Amino acid sequence: MLVTIDATGEIKNNVPLNLKNGELHAAELIISSLPVGDSAKLSWRTKGMAKVPISSSYIYSKQNVDYAKASLIRLQKTAMLNRLLKFTTNELEYFAAQNAGTKNFLNELDTDGTITDADLHNLWKKLFLLLFFVGLKSETEQEENSWVQVLEDPEIKNLQGNNLLLGITNWKKTDLDAVLAHFTFIMADLSQLSKLKKVVAAMNLVTTVDYPAADVISWSVATPALALINDIKQKIKDKTDGEL
Predict the structure, then answer these.
(1) Residue 45 — φ and ψ, nearest 5°?
(2) What SS3 class is residue 45?
(3) Residues 179, 213: contact at Cβ < 8 Å?
């Protein structure tokens, strides 16, 4: 914008500015020096309003505007993402602020196209874990926020005093204990989505084959000995004969 300095010492724009209520307009004023004791102030006037100083409530620093813009974009992306994930309020707050594997995933959403490859990869890993949770929840959860309670405390019990995790999944405690021992995990580790994902995959296999987890684990070797093969055959025979 071109400006001129008149005899009164005012700097005025050469052409009128078309300002509209609710719209921001970028402006930059560079003052290289002022006489001692002098100061500068911004004023405006309209055809129907005399010249008055511009109130500070109408002036926003670029830093604050950029921050507000980024916050708005992040809020819009959060709303779009949550429409897909369908998180409850408790789940969204937990994954965004507490879970070690997903914490800060909302703050890390790109708002200006400058996200680095490393940060994008890290964000994708968090979203991948969240998608696993969404699938797990849709397949097993009967009561809202049950799984997030388990993630907060894998030892939590339901109103009947039974382990909530076992109730949600219908897993057998002996099978879960065997799988945890195989991975050298403890119950508290199931608050980590990456470890929970691993355990869920193993427990799904155990449930599908319908043999005790301890047996399935002992059978899962690269080069089984003849004795192990015979033991497997016998256990399968005993199970199938009993079902006939």
Answers:
(1) -145, 155
(2) strand
(3) yes
